[in-house]
Amino acid sequence: MKTRKWLFFAFTSLIILPAKRDAAWIRLYLKDPMAALPEAKMPKVDLTDQEIADLTAFLRLR
Ligand code: HEM
How many domains does the chain have? Predict the structure, then answer.
């Protein structure tokens, strides 16, 4: 049972979550949320291209 839970966690975190949003999508969302997600409520945050690249790399690693 413990092993199955671990396998489920590994599967969802390694395969499903990274597949949900790729780096290009995250970059676009951070630049202009509504361009990536028409119903987005998150406001445009004033970020430099370097900050967007750093945040995208960080979010993709989680
Ligand atoms: C540098 C700052 C920020 C970063 C890196 C960031 C990042 C993100 C990410 C990665 C998502 C998930 C998108 C998805 O996969 O569907 C998200 C969603 C969201 N964020 Fe942010 N966010 C930031 C600032 C903010 C601010 C300042 C607000 C509101 C005042 C906000 C409000 C929201 C909301 C409401 C969502 C849910 C989806 C939507 O309706 O847009 N975020 N954010």
Answer: 1
Query: Residue 2, Cα to own-chain centre: how many angstroms?
Result: 28
**pLDDT tens digits, residue range 17-51?**
556 799 999 999 999 999 999 999 999 999 999 99
36 lines ligand 1 (CB under 6 A): no
User: The whole model's pTM is what?
Assistant: 0.78
Which ranges of the chain would DSSP assign to H, the alpha helix? 2-11, 17-20, 23-31, 33-36, 49-61
Q: Which of 31, 39, 42 to mutate to test the pocket of ligand 1 (most atoms within 8 A of CB)?
A: 42
Flag whether 7 is in a domain.
Answer: no
* Atom 14 (ligand 1) nearest CA: 21
Does residue 1 form part of some domain? no
